[in-house]
Amino acid sequence: MDGGDPTKTHLVLVPLMEQGHMIPMADLALLLATRGARVSFITTPVNARRLRATADRAVEAGLPLRLVELPFPCAEAGLPQGCENVDLVPSLDLFHSFFHCLYLLAGPLKQFLLQNVEPRNSPTCIIADQCLPWTATVAAELSIPRLIFHGPSCFFLLCTLLVTRHKLHEKVADEDEIFAVPELSQTIQVNKRQSLRFFQWPGFEDFLCQIETADDTADGFVLNTFYEMEPWCIDDYRSAVGKEVWPIGPVSLCHKDANSKAVRGNGDAAVDHGGVIEWLDAREPRSVLFVSFGSVASTSPQQLMEIGAALEATGWPFVWAVKTAEQSSEVEEWATEFKQRNQGRGMVMKGWVQQLLILSHPALGGFMTHCGWNSTLEAVAAGVPMVTWPHFADQFLNEKLVVEVLRTGVAVRVKPPEVYQAGELVEREVVERAMERVMGGGEEGEEMRVRARELGEKAMKAVEEGGSSYDSLGKLISRASELSRISAWEPGFS
């Protein structure tokens, strides 16, 4: 196989079935197909419906990308029928069952690789989410090279790796005791809950060990970030893991027009994105605050009301995304009065929102976010400063990257909660102060906004031809082809 010819490269992408992981891998699929590589995107029927509009647009544009639907054996794992995404898991008690079900996809994936691939276009390489360690076994059995797609920031990956290597969690007894992450070029102080790796939770010990083993056998790591934002993190992480690392983001910038941004991640949702865009069009540039905490984090009714009171007090125009699960009778009654009081000044959107479309609008002046990496990086790419309010997992270290390293955001400074649980109630005055520092804030606010805009410009240049991420993507494709030649895999071998 010619490493210089991407059209002879066939990459098989296997995402974790969770919106925050699946969406950036779908963007990566588009980027790879745009560069001429053939891409098979592994998914399940429910998730395929969410991605269908994006895939159809790719096919219409002549891109060599296809969705491959594998059956998701919910019944075998004791899950409700159709429970094919993390955001559809009805309770924390079923999380173990969901991840067990993911392991059951190994057989169907192997059959696809063996039987449904033309000999002239055999798989070059698997790119799998880090949270799917069972793909290592499939790749090894078929002698297919395997790269890992990392969803979080490189800052998070580096910090948690160093904390683990120095066994700091074993040396620190108190959950709230502050310690410095060792070996960093900048002093970053954390506690145990802020520096947990994914699945470093009670009951997931075996799964975490499997992830670590799969990392050790991978041929390299693909990161949704860009070099100009995390240069020392990327350099230090590459040295620490001793493997090739390709920063190829922000992958969200592959969506150039409004229609592409609108269908990203949930193309089957009946959302009229035109309404919010028309509303934003009538606002002054950089005057609107957008509030959204992603698809998983939960906000209590009391906290929603405190956020609403803070929004009212600031006087800034706002767009506020409230999840369907948060709309209790108590919230509905309060929300009705809240909307009446703020008619014309604010927009409250229920359910799924087209976040990328909103963030990229020139009226956006600030973004209150849970600091999920996709949301964080999308705000960076749009040049929008942030009010940071992490809830769990990598979000606490993402906040530190934004606030302490990049200095493009202000922390609400809530105490880290237990995993996936609501934290302590933050009063409206605290929330309001953070909002005001980002949206107004005098000299401090203006300097923050300038840094955010400059970083957004660097993000755009990184993905353009000749940019760092553009070049890194080309090197990834070439390396995948080179690894495939070394492996010399042929269909039918097992």
> How many domains comprise the coordinates?
2
Low-pLDDT sequence parts? 489-494
Helical percentage? 40-55%
Give the class from helix and strand content and strand pairing. alpha/beta
Shape: globular
CATH architectural arrangement of the largest domain: 3-Layer(aba) Sandwich
> How many helix segments?
20
Distance between the termini: 21 Å
Which sequence of strands runs across the widest sheet? 3-2-1-4-5-8-9
What is the fourth-level CATH superfamily of the largest domain? Answer: Glycogen Phosphorylase B
Q: From the alpha carbons, calculate the radius of gyration and give it in angstroms.
A: 22 Å
Give the biggest beta sheet: 7 strands, parallel
The number of distinct β-strands equals: 15
CATH level 3 topology of the largest domain = Rossmann fold
Strand content: 5-15%
Query: Which CATH class of the largest domain is shown?
Result: Alpha Beta
Oligomer: single chain
InterPro entries: Glyco_transf_N (IPR058980), UDP_glucos_trans (IPR002213), UDP_glycos_trans_CS (IPR035595)
GO molecular function: UDP-glucosyltransferase activity
Domain Glycosyltransferase N-terminal: 11-251
Family: Belongs to the UDP-glycosyltransferase family.
